Amino acid sequence: MEAAPTKPEASSAGQQRAEPQADIVLGVIVAPGLARDVTAKIASELAHDLEALDLGVEWRTELAADRLVTPPAQTSEIIDAARRKLLDEDWDLGVVVTDLPLRVGRRPVSRQVRPTHGIAVVSPPLDEAGNSVRAQRAIAEVSNALGGNPYDVRARGR
Predict the structure, then answer these.
(1) Does the global pTM surpass 0.85?
(2) Residue 115 falls within a domain, yes or no?
């Protein structure tokens, strides 16, 4: 009696789930004065939102409460301090959620992105109830603007 033919195993890329290429650690630095529960929720949901970008990487967020600079401070000072924090914590990318006003020249802005530093700064308008919808959207946008490609992160000289 002959053995029944065996089914070929699923070996095409379309039938197997691709494994992520690398882990990306995104440090979310929040000003101590901002509502901790709101910013913690932003950080915890952010990895899920970034996974939806389907860049082939695993995202992990870490939350840190840190003023970084003494006000008043220039946007460039905030970015430099955030870069130092990123390097100290061994993060791949960093997003600062600050309660300080941001300016480019004399023009106020809600966010500033420095892809070469792997840092973005967001100054979202949060109401007394801690409405974080706009803040979460802005953080996801600047994280996407930073690239999320682990090879780009490593090329920045970390």
Answers:
(1) no
(2) yes
